[in-house]
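Milestone M4 deliverable, item 7.
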Amino acid sequence: MTSAAGADRGGDQAGMILINVLVIVMLATAVLALMIAGDDSDIERSIRLREASDAMAVARGAELSAIAALRRDMAEGANMDAPSEKWGSIADSNAAIEGGRFSYAVQDAQARFNVTNLIRMDARNLALFTAIASGAGWTEEDVGALQQAVLASGDVPDIDDLRAIGIAEDKLVALAQLVTFLPEPTDINANTASEGLLAIVLNDPALASRLVAERERSGGLTRGDLAELGIALPSGVSVSSNYFWSGAGVRIGSTVQRLTSLLQRRIRDGEPEVVTLQRWRGATPLQAPAFPFVTP
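Output delivered:
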């Protein structure tokens, strides 16, 4: 009996040892799985960071190409700015690059009415803005609220500030198709403004239609061209620009990066210079044009 009981106890102990070993193995396996999962997560994170870095490097390279084209255009002494020039033709749309896709474009920031002009508070700019805003669904009360904001701060509010003074989002979106916010007052470029905006600015839809047809035929109009055509531009409208938008969208692997930049062209110490005033990563700011970004 004693011998049999001892054998039973020995078997129980052996069974417990086996169970303990199995539990330890299971725990070790679970820990190893977690470690592997953590490693996989770290690897995936590293891949995404590398993809994001590479994509942003491509986007910044595109911005530099715009800067170079705009500086060259200025150095050549161009007396008008239009998309037919080299700065407007460096665009790509969903082009294949190593590991992904790439889209890029440069657009004239002075193709729209610059709300910063209102800081002058002169009758012409106020009347022009009122006409443009009316077309975007603004009421007299909305325009009055903007005037008060300018008078109170001594500066022109941006899109976020306009939200703060109670302008409805749908009205802001509609207005943003016709206006922009630049650091200083600027003229509207007749070579890039939409026909609808020109109709308001010129107060003559037929003349606006003719101007657009002529600029499309010739690739862009100088003041001399306009004089020959008998078209007189009102104050606040020109044929050249100093501010431009560049927009790039890059997809590498599964990572997408977007970069929108506001560029200024100017003369510094007698030499042409193009500088980046501001950059936005991700969503395009409301006051910028819609760029042909890459597809998912």
